[in-house]
Specification:
With about 110 residues, the protein is mainly beta. Helix content is about 5%, strand content about 45%.
Amino acid sequence: MALTSFFCAIFALDAKTGGKCATYRSKKRPLRRSAQPVYSAGSGFQAVGAGAQLKYRFNPAWATYGFVEYDKLVGPTANSPIVTGPGGSANQWTVGLGLTYSFVMIGLPF
């Protein structure tokens, strides 16, 4: 089994959406049965993390891959009640597996 591809990246996600990514309740339309206060995270960096991906080609058409990513929530996002409350965590893991099929379409202008 030959390893045909390895990818590793370090990245930072920038939440320039006025904090809407980290807001769990709208200020304009409050929830009726919620005891949670309104939380506005503001803007800034949301998370920093790293990831790795492995890819194995069975033949020129078929391949499989797997990846793992780790994010550490930072700043106002890490201070959100959803993150600091029961069951929340500033450490976020993502894992995945996939299968791909590649093909060539003859006659396309590009």
